[in-house]
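Hi F.,

I've been meaning to write this up properly since the lab meeting, where we talked about keeping a consistent format for the predictions we share between groups. The idea is simple: the sequence comes first, exactly as it goes in, then the structure tokens exactly as they come out, then a line or two of notes. No screenshots and no reformatting. I'm using this chain as the first example so we have something concrete to point to.
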Amino acid sequence: MKRFAHQYNELITGMLSCFDRILFKGYLPIGWGDSMEGFLTQQGLRIKDFSKFVQKQSRRIAEHAERLAKNSGRPYLYLNGPHRKEAIVQGLIEAEDLRQGLVCVMRAVEPCQSFKLVPGEGRPRLIAARRKCLCFYFYFLDPKLGLVHVRIQSWFPLVIQVCLNGHDILARKLDKHGIAYRKEDNAFTWIEDTRRAQRFADRLVKMNWPRILTSLARRVNPLLKDLLAGMDYYWVTDQAEYATDVMFKSPAALKPLYEKLVKHASTCFSAEDVLKFLGRKLHGNYQGEVLSDYKKRWPGVRIKHRAKSNWIKMYDKHGRVLRIETVINQPREFKVRRQGVRQGRQVIDWFPLCKGVANLFRYAEICRGANRRYLDALAVVEPPVEAMHDLRCLARSKQRNGRPHRGFNPVAEDDLHLFAAILRGEHALCGMRNQDVRHQLFGETTDRDRRRRQANKVSRLFRRLHVHGLLAKIPRSRRWRLTERGTLLISVFLKCHYDKYPELLAALVA
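Output, unedited:
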């Protein structure tokens, strides 16, 4: 993300990439009908006794939750209807200046995944079904994890949900090492040593998450001590938010820039660009919707680019932090390099990314790359003063090996079409070939002579772009890539033509 940091170096105090909200879920090996029937058989019960058995165990969980709250002297609340649980919890923390331990226990009737009895051949059967049951929320202030909530449903298969915040974990780490910072809500507005803080944030994926999450599960599920002894939860990452925060010196430094960033992102980023930000290749077999959503929210606006169930969004926090955040809900859209089976053989290759917590490191890699590409694309907004000199040089002809190469005209139709073709998002990951640009400029043709002439013309255009420092050859390949200078200047050319020139002309006419 050096391009963005270099461009706005005078306005920012630092950058930090860290997990924000992480939602884990734990599943016992009795999550489907056959396994639950086998478990009942082990307990010496019949399938028709399922309802009575579940009600009895549900009462045990409720009694445990009430006893835990009473022994800790904390509130035991019943929520009827919609409530903002986080607001209630924060109110309790601030009112009593809590630092550690149980904050409260909440209970509410909510939908859950459970079982139901259905008629079967010779005997009834258990099948998975959507039910409603009493769910318990335990809010803890952990000395290492910060504020954590653990939700357990009181009906089998006793799915557990654990939600925590990466910025809270990092704040505890900074406190331990004596690094000063300022934090509002879940965002750092200033950190004394951002490089060291980034190293701490990068270590979050190396924590022993199965051990940490199992320890939390044992605090809320009393059945793990006897009835379910020997069973372990299998932990998955149900949702992960990874944020890159750009900390500005003051709200006055961010506000005018943020308005331009939002305008650029909403008008210039296409569906192809969104896929490339998320590290996806554009192909004809893509089945899904890609859209950009603009929404006003307090205290400003946010823009979200969605590809299926994953998205990347931009918003400002407390007027001082520009946040780029990638959210992964559907990890199988991405790949991870691991051991697997290909054509009956064990190989190490790229396979679809699964939700297991062992892959949390890959979540961080994918999200950090998406945030970087997004910030790089925004780095063309408000170019530095020296870029104006580069624009003037770009319009002049240049000599190379005694041969002149004419410049580029920001209002010439051919130059604009060329710039638009090479700036397409699909070239961001793998570069561009002659035929890629040729198809964009001239379309498809079956005439071999015409295709050859068009290919030669594109080769001359590549050479001209290369002489002016806009394109660079990728070694040992037939592909070209845009240079940083090329990305900046071409973006400015297009922005001037489609944005600034019409505004200036309208003002003069008025």
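Notes:
The first strand starts at residue 12 and ends at 27.
Residues 1-23+165-207+236-382 form one domain.

If this format works for you, I'll send the rest the same way.

G.
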